[in-house]
Amino acid sequence: MPTLDAPEERLKKFKYRGKDASVRRQQRMALSLELRKAKKDEQALKRRNITYLSPDLASKGVCLTLDEIIKGMNSLDLAVCFEATQAIRKMLSQEKNPPLKMIVESGVIPRLVEFLKSSHHPCLQFEAAWALTNIASGTSLDTQAVVKGGAILPLAELLSSPNMTVCEQAVWALGNIAGDGPEFRDVVISSNVIPRLTALISSTISITFLRNITWTLSNLCRGKDPYPCEEAVRQILPVLSHLLQYQDSEILSDTCWALSYLTDACSERITLVLDTGVLPRLVELLTSVELSVLTPSLRTVGNIVTGTDHQTQMAIDAGMLKVLPQLLQHPRSSIQKEATWALSNVAAGPHQHIQGLITHNLIPPLVALLRNGEYKVQKEAVWTVANLAMGASADQLFQLVHFGVLGPLLSLLTVPDVKIILIILNVISYVLQAAQKLSDKKSLCLLVEELGGIDRIEALQHHENSQIRWAALQIIENHFGEEEDTDTHSPKPSL
């Protein structure tokens, strides 16, 4: 069926970008960018250590001024160096307003890096690593100072330290450096840290240490432009698959975030993740009552169904559609939005995927969100209906109408959002054209009129946006105008 005869430039702005399912699917990644941007801060990029990791290694120490600290750090007496380094760590570990800039500008970072190499003095290594961890938790300039000071290689070496407390602090510091962005992430990866991190994972390490390793691994997966190299991804994926089997919510959360970063890419990268066999476990985690686990697992599954039809089918086969109805009705609007976005990706597929949505009773909660959801959720629901309308068979299309999708769609024509209005007008036109082909146009026109749709569409003929005016006029003239006026052709609006 032809779409509304609108300017090509306008149609290009639509999420589905035409009727072809493969074309719609190819565009999902870019068109979901706004959603991901809104969610980018849900996992901490960097973390300061403001608590003691080991009472034995982190003793009380004494209070020193900055000048005394700098003098002490340059002493030949390692006991004096330790006191000075511990004093810096304490300054940087205060909960509010740590003097990061002052410490960086004092020039002590190279000396802290030297102390990382003091293998016979683990207490000093620990305090230096802790101080560098907290400096790297600051701004990009702070992190850059740590990297320029030469900290990455000594920290990577500490991953082999026999002292687990020192080792754990090095893991944390490297996680902060990698979390700064793709450039430093890749420098950390090139220091051969992934095999060392994975070698640390065993049943004998503490749960807090395992959490830190998982978080650091997730930061090594984070970031685009560029994505992590394929070799690094292949190294990390087996351990992520292993970590996904834990029951600890913090480990599960960071593991799922890592997988969400790795699936936020091309279908080839999605395949690497799917080949590990993690999909059934990810779908299982969609039932988690922990929001910190549910959010990234849902994001990951949503990313997977931005892939090929086969990859989407794998998610369906794993039971994704059985879980989505509950998620669409989740009390958190953020989960409703993520679930609706995932649903829209499935809706952009072939007829059998759309039929799966109908069979699993996903249309009624979708209509409920269109009618009563927060506006950010309603927008995702509009995209979903648009994808459904463009890819559905005639029978599936009229099942949508039967489920009551037109009423809330028509109500949304009054929103102050040009893009959403244009999409809704396009969907209405598409459904009317389908009805015309099936000789069922009269009853559908009556339904639109009963729902107050004609008045709303006619009002849009006076909208300030020329594209909306033109689209509304075409619907009225082609489907609701007097018979003698149906041949009238209105000029297209200028762009």
Detailed description of the structure:
- It is a single chain.
- The chain has 495 residues and is mainly α.
- It has helices spanning 8-11, 21-31, 33-39, 66-73, 78-93, 100-105, 109-115, 122-136, 140-148, 152-158, 164-178, 182-190, 193-200, 207-221, 230-243, 249-263, 267-274, 279-285, 291-304, 309-317, 320-328, 333-347, 351-359, 363-372, 375-391, 394-402, 406-411, 418-437, 441-450, 453-459, 466-480.
- α4 packs across α5 (78-93), α21 (320-328) packs across α22 (333-347) and α28 runs parallel beside α31.
- The longest helix has 20 residues, at 418-437.
Short description:
With 495 residues, the protein is mainly alpha-helical.
Q: Secondary-structure blueprint of this entry?
A:
Elements: H1 8-11, H2 21-31, H3 33-39, H4 66-73, H5 78-93, H6 100-105, H7 109-115, H8 122-136, H9 140-148, H10 152-158, H11 164-178, H12 182-190, H13 193-200, H14 207-221, H15 230-243, H16 249-263, H17 267-274, H18 279-285, H19 291-304, H20 309-317, H21 320-328, H22 333-347, H23 351-359, H24 363-372, H25 375-391, H26 394-402, H27 406-411, H28 418-437, H29 441-450, H30 453-459, H31 466-480
Helix pairs in contact: 4-5, 5-8, 7-8, 8-11, 10-11, 11-14, 14-16, 15-16, 16-19, 18-19, 19-22, 21-22, 22-25, 24-25, 25-28, 28-29, 28-31, 30-31
